[in-house]
Specification:
The complex is a heterodimer of chains A (302) and B (278). Chain A has 302 residues and is mainly alpha-helical. Chain A is 75% helix and 1% strand. Chain A folds into two domains: 2-48, no CATH class; 74-301, MetI-like fold. Chain A has a two-stranded antiparallel ribbon. In chain A, helix 5 packs across helix 8, helix 8 (166-191) crosses helix 10 and helix 12 packs antiparallel against helix 13 (271-301). Chain B has helices at 2-40, 44-47, 62-70, 73-105, 108-119, 122-135, 143-167, 171-178, 183-194, 196-212, 215-220, 228-238, 243-263, 265-277. In chain B, helix 1 (2-40) packs across helix 13 (243-263), helix 5 (108-119) crosses helix 7 (143-167) and helix 8 (171-178) runs antiparallel to helix 9. The longest helix of chain B has 39 residues, at 2-40. The chains are: A mainly alpha (302), B mainly alpha (278).
Chain lengths: 302, 278
């Protein structure tokens, strides 16, 4: 049985090789760079995660002790909680708003290209610079956001300066940054839709609402899932906005895994611990991506 | 008659609803940029006034002058140009042929490696690379930053080029091959010229993502090798209440990127939606 498996693998590989071989010359330079820049750090990280290494002192092999310490580190466990809270909202809200924006920008009107260009500016703008502007807008006494709230009769908010509102405020920035990205992906989906079902539905007297849920939504679903996968990966990894606006604070209220990781590595110089965090972090990202890819396959078949 | 006016009215309502939804979508998006520009053109006394001053009464460029006087902005700009320029250029030289090879050989396994590199948190490269560069004595020059930016630019270029080469008809190359062209010639003289739009899009998207990147520069840059985003972040830590200069610095950093976005927005939309679905 094992033998059969091996030979099956061999023939599959042989035919793949035959197709690949003439093109290897095109691929290998990029592959070498990828390996150097990606594989080397990986091996190094896994090795380091098994060591106790504080920059400036001796390194010692300690096996899985770093992981054991993390499992009981309250700050680490809380940062996982913050990461999930942040990710769920920072994926779901841009997804809904981006889809709505795509439906609007799919219609034909004068100046569409220009308005669409304006709309995608946030995702192209330098995140650090944008975060800086948001920091000034969030200011509880002098910030323009509290003034806008007062205009519509709402009480001022502490925004990123209070434990309870800091993550929702950061999500506001995330929505602003990444709704255009979802819009672009869904727009690509809408452009590829056939028009026949809509004509048939119009003849049958269907309403706009029915047409969206019965025709557009199922056909665009694969694109939505793609947007969701990429958005989830990016939201889990979100760093610059959080780092610039709150530095993980107040206290550690907005410290996500990535921010915790940065603090361990570059503020406390705990390279061993930080490497163990990287390994756990990557495992979480891969696990979530696999779940989403599986969901994508399901969306394709049903 | 009655039917016609009703139809006209219906059309008018539809148009108004569309205009309203475009306005609602664009308002928050543009307000942040508007506020940034407004802050950068006012003196700090107006910037900290309550109620806020929206339209500057006496616009001033003092904040921009201040930024250039207080920090070596031209040096940082040149650093960014070197880092982003070389990272983009090398990524194009390596990534365009690789995208071609992967698309033609239908090597989906290799494409999956690229997805993996997108999933890896950028910070995870930093610790080992930092140790490596320190050993090689490269910390303090721009080259470690440029090298690490390849982590960002190369996957983007390969990813988008795979999408472009996959949709290209291969009859033309086959004809060239029958006429005696080598694989390389078929790529160089047939496929490459046809893929020009893809090359432009991937170059610009790689350029933008590298220009905007903060974290690699933050870790690897010394005082004289800061890239623009790092320089601006440093201003925030030292001048957190000088809102005018901060806003001016933010504008200076993102201006090149925003200009590129406006100029080629149609290509960006096409490139991203093609790359995202594959």
């Amino acid at each position: 049985m094992a033998g059969a498996d091996i030979s099956g693998g061999m023939t599959g590989r042989a035919s793949g090789d035959a197709r690949l071989r003439p093109y290897l010359g095109f691929i290998w330079p990029a592959l070498v760079v990828c390996t150097a820049v990606i594989i080397f750090p990986w091996l190094f990280t896994i090795w380091m995660s098994l060591n106790d290494w504080h920059i400036g002192s001796e390194r010692a092999f300690i096996g899985l002790a770093n992981y054991a310490n993390l499992a009981t580190d309250r700050r680490f466990l809380e940062s996982i909680g913050h990461t999930f809270y942040f990710t769920i909202l920072a994926v779901f809200l841009p997804l809904v708003l981006g889809t709505m924006a795509a439906l609007v920008f799919h219609k034909k009107f004068r100046g569409r290209g220009f308005f669409r260009a304006l709309f995608i500016m946030p995702m192209m703008a330098t995140p650090v610079a944008v975060s800086l502007v948001w920091t000034m807008m969030f200011h509880p006494q002098l910030g323009v956001l509290n003034y806008l709230l007062s205009l519509v009769g709402l009480p001022p908010s502490q925004w990123v300066f209070a434990t309870s509102t800091v993550i929702p405020s950061l999500i506001l920035v995330e929505i602003w940054l990444w709704t255009p990205f979802v819009m672009i992906i869904v727009l690509g989906g809408l452009a590829s839709l056939p028009i026949e079902p809509y004509e048939a539905a119009l003849i049958d007297g269907a309403s706009q609402w029915q047409m969206f849920w019965k025709i557009t939504y199922p056909l665009v679903l694969p694109f939505l899932v793609v947007a969701m996968i990429i958005r989830t990966i990016d939201a889990l990894k979100a760093f610059e906005t959080i780092w610039v606006i709150t530095n993980g604070g107040p206290g550690t209220a907005s410290e996500t895994l990535n921010v915790y990781l940065y603090a361990q590595a570059f503020a406390y110089n705990q390279v061993g611990t930080a490497s163990a965090v990287v390994v756990v972090f990557f495992a979480i990202i891969v696990a979530l991506s696999l779940v989403l890819l599986w969901a994508r396959q399901k969306a394709k078949w049903t | 008659m009655n039917y016609r006016t009703r139809r006209r009215l219906r059309k008018l309502v539809d148009k108004a609803a569309l205009a309203l939804s475009v306005a609602v979508l664009l308002a928050p998006c543009l307000f942040v940029f508007f506020w940034m520009i407004s802050l950068s053109l006012k003196y700090d006394i107006d910037n900290t006034a309550w109620p806020p001053v929206f339209i500057p009464t006496e616009p001033t460029f003092d904040n921009f002058v201040h930024v250039f006087q207080e920090s070596p902005m031209f040096l940082y700009f040149w650093n960014s140009v070197q880092v982003t320029g070389s990272a983009t250029l090398v990524a194009m030289l390596l990534g365009v042929p690789a995208g071609y090879g992967i698309a033609k050989a239908r090597a989906h396994g290799l494409a999956a490696v690229l997805l993996l590199s997108r999933m890896t948190p950028g910070l995870s490269y930093l610790i080992p690379l930092f140790a490596l560069f320190q050993m090689m004595g490269m910390i303090g020059t721009v080259w470690p930053i440029a090298l690490t930016h390849m982590v960002i630019t190369l996957p983007i270029v390969v990813w988008i080029m795979i999408g472009f080469f996959e949709t290209q008809p291969h009859e033309l190359e086959e004809a060239a091959r029958i006429d005696g062209a080598t694989l390389w010639q078929a790529f160089r003289y047939v496929a490459l010229p046809l893929a020009r739009p893809g090359i432009v899009v991937s170059a610009i998207l790689a350029f933008i993502s590298s220009w905007n990147n903060f974290i690699f520069g933050a870790v690897f840059a010394g005082r004289t090798t800061r890239t623009m985003p790092v320089a601006v972040y440093n201003m925030l830590t030292f001048e957190s209440f000088a809102w005018g200069p901060l806003a001016a610095a933010a504008i200076i950093v993102m201006l090149p990127v925003l200009v590129l976005t406006i100029v080629i927005q149609r290509e960006i939309v096409q490139g991203l939606s093609a790359g995202g679905v594959k």
